Structure formats: C-alpha cells, structure tokens
Amino acid sequence: MRLTRTSISGNRSHPTRLHASITNSGHVNVIYNKINDAVHGDMTLRSGDTVELLPGTLDYSLHTEGKLISIYEIFLRIEIIEQKTTQTSGKKSYQNQNQTFLTGYHFRRNRNCKGIIKGIAGEVLGVYTRRVRVCVNDVVQIRDMILTNALGPTTFRKSQTDAQDNDHGRLICRFKLQTEADINLEQEGLSGWNALSRSGSITRLTQAESDRGFGEDDDTSSTGFRGYMDSLDLNREYVFGDICCGAGGGTLGAEMAGFIVKFGNDNNVDSMQSWRLNRNPTHGAVGFCEDAFNFVTESSLRELVGNARHVDLLHLSIPCQTYSPAHTIPGKNDDDNSAMTGVIGASLCNLRPRIGTLEETDGIIRQSQHRHYFFWILWQFLAEEYNVSWNVLEALEYGCVSKRSRLIIIASCPGERLPSYPLRTHAWSRNQKVWQQQVALGGLRPPVTVGQALSSIPQHEKDDLRDIHRIDMDQPFLQTITTGSHHFLSTHHKALLQSFPPTYKFVGNKTSISKQSQYPVSHLV
Predict the structure, then answer these.
(1) Which fold has domain 2-204?
(2) Which CATH topology does 229-525 take?
(3) Comparing 478 with 171, which gets the higher pLDDT?
(4) What pTM does this model have?
(5) How much is the pLDDT for 412?
(6) Is 443 left (phi over 0), alpha (psi -120 to 50) or beta?
(7) What are the residue ranges of CATH 3.40.50.150 in the chain?
C-alpha cells in the first residue's frame, strides 16, 4: 500500500488528507477535520484540557528481548481536536468511518524519567520533541495540570497529600525535554534513551509557556536565584572560574573570549603549576591545588569570589579517563574519577554561576555501561534548577588538528537564556571530496593539517615524522594519543597536536606533561 500526504493543514476549509491506493480492492481516502470539542463517555474534551492516557498508548513496542517493558502513566495537553473520516470505496461497496483524535505534547512523571530529574511528587516532565496524535478512546480521565516557570516544589501545589494522589492529584510541569531525534522513553534501543546521546535540552518553562496566572517574570527568577538583579551588559567584564582545570585549556579559551579569570582548581600539583605559569600575574587569577569537593565548600572560596560568592561562567572538566572508549582496562583511579562527577551539584550550589559549562568524552553517553553517569550529570544541573543542554561536538570542526569528539554541556541559571552552541568554523569529513565541497559552498575553512599545527617546529623534525613514522602532514591528525602511545612524539609535539599554542609552558616530567596536554578540552572549542 502506498501512502502520500497531500496537505498538512487541519482546518475545515483545507483538511488534512491522507490518500492510500489499494491494489485490486478499491481506494481509501482519509480526511482530518478540526472540531471544537469531543465527547468521550461522560467527558467533554476541549483544547487546553489535560487528559490521562491508557498506559502503553505511545509505546511502539511493549517487549524488548522478550521482556515486558515497564509502562508508566502518560498525560496529554490537548491542542487540536480532529475528526478522522475514512472513506473506503470499491467496485461493489462504499464505507465511511469516523474517529476522533487529539493532538498535543505529552508528559510523564519525573520519577519515571530514568533518574535525570528529581522525582518530586506530582511533578511531570513535558516531552516537547514533537506533538503526538492519539485516539480519544485512549483517554482515561481529565486531569488538573499546571504549566509554570515558578521556582520551588511547593509553588501552586494544593497540598502534599494532593501531590501524592496518583489518581486525581494536581500535576505540575516546570521543565520540558527536547531532543534532536524523536524518542520513545519506554525503550532502551535506538528509538529510546539512546536518542539522547547526540543532542538535546531540558529547560524550565518560560513565562510565555506558562499557563495564564501561573507564570512569573523570568528576570525575577534570576534575582531570586542569585540573590540580586544582574542583567547582561555587553560593556562590563565577566568573571570566570575553572574547576578540574588541568593545565588550563578551558581557562585559555575563556581568556581569549575576554573573561576575567578569578580562579582555577585542580588536585594535580604539576597541572596546577602549569596553570599558574601561563596566567598573567597582573590579572589576579588564583590557583588552588586541592580536592575539588573541599574547594567548592570551603570558606576561603567565598572570600575569594566575593559578592555572594558568584561567578558569571563556571567551567568543569570532570576526569574523563574512566568513560573514554580508549579505556579498555580497569584502572586504579576509576572509582575516584567516577566519584568526581558528583562535584557538579556542590559547585553550582556554592558558586551560583550565571552560566555553567562542562566537557566530557562522548563515551559517557555513547557506551551503555556509562550512560547512568550522564543521567547523573543532568540530574545535578536540574536539581539546582538550571536549564541544561548537551551536544557532541567534533573538535576538528572548530579549528583543532586532532579528531576528538567531546560532549559539551551548557547550563543556565533560572531567568538566564540558555546560550546556543557555536557554529562550526571548519569543514570535516573522512571523504575529502565532501569537505572540499563544504568549503567551496563558502563559510567554512578547510580542516587544520598536521603540517600547519607543527609549523613552529624545525623542518627536520617534520621530515622525520613524515618519512619515518608515516605521519601525513597534509591531513588532520586522526590517531588517538594515550599515555603509553606515540613515544616518538615529544611532549611539545603532543601539546601542539592538541592545539596548545607553541609558547604554552608545562611543568613536570615527560609522562606528566603528556597527560596534561592529552586530557584537556581544546581552548578552540
């Protein structure tokens, strides 16, 4: 059977038509007409109503590998009501069938969202990836639901008892989920939670998205959260802090962007000395060599940052070794490195940044054994009521010479607009003809080559790398450098291949410097 959509309009003058040609048996004509209300049992449903749906209504499959999937409550905020008319004609008969359908965004309880958001009684998460269309026969009952951007779990709640009433209690939605791909939250496969692995966001509703009478001014949200009104001003300088800063790749990028670097923190002595060595002493940046958990909770930090201990931009580079695809053998520091993921919530709570950023290896979401840590990261941002977005960026597309896929998370405090991700500046594809076409179309530069990245080293060193070690000087560096690999590369070569400037200084022995230049996010990203 071949289906073709001829119109996407849903009003009476231009109804949506879906034609199906059926070989040897006639013709099917499907028409959707908008209507004002629909009667189902003793309920009269109208646009703006919230309804509870039968469990499993939106599930594409109720079984995975022979096991029944858990089915949770699903709610729908009705936006459009349509009557579907199916006309079937054949050589000897003509049939006309009518059904009523409801269209809108769907919602599910926070506690049923894989632990990415606090499971507060009565609170639901809006799934705003796409609107869904369901049959009116799938409606169980009308529910009371409030859409609001107001802070606080008790705001607009009737009572704790009402919130715990699963069958009839008021539902409150404060956050919405949007993803690059359509997802079925009940499934673990490619159409399920794995679809979160590329890009998406979970953000608080805005005043405009809140129900009438239940929203508050978005700027008021920021004032209540940070303790004072501090609107954006392009003429002022903004303060930057770097936790788990390493040798300072992220800090260098912030300096290039015009931020005032207030502090850096790392528990590695050599990395912290390298970080200090490359800062301008007249700018007053202070480096703290200590455990990140201790750093973000001690009183000296409050005295350092001042002004209610706020920073404008806080960057975190949580240790990535445990989650890296190149990490195939358990290491002695795996537990400590994984535990460091928990410093995010404490950092946000104590520093109250306007914007938070985090970089990690994409292995934390690409590999199923690590994905719960990714959910934990999202949980910590959302528990502090931050908007959060994630995206996997390829460093080559931002001027880096080495191929590195990094998970970049951007978060904003209540009342602050969530920044968008930067547009890529360089073309890249393993197929050279593809990236050459991208460059020819304009707007993108060719990928940086090894020869360009190593332009500052003597020619005989480049000749040895090309002739002896078969390094292609006319292509990006596509190999993965680990602590125990590429011994023919000097520490200076490795730093250049990770896009550090030729003048960047490192402290420590060869192994230490290799780690310092290998792990950090590039300042270009």
Answers:
(1) SH3 type barrels. (2.30.30)
(2) Rossmann fold (3.40.50)
(3) 171
(4) 0.85
(5) 94
(6) left
(7) 229-525
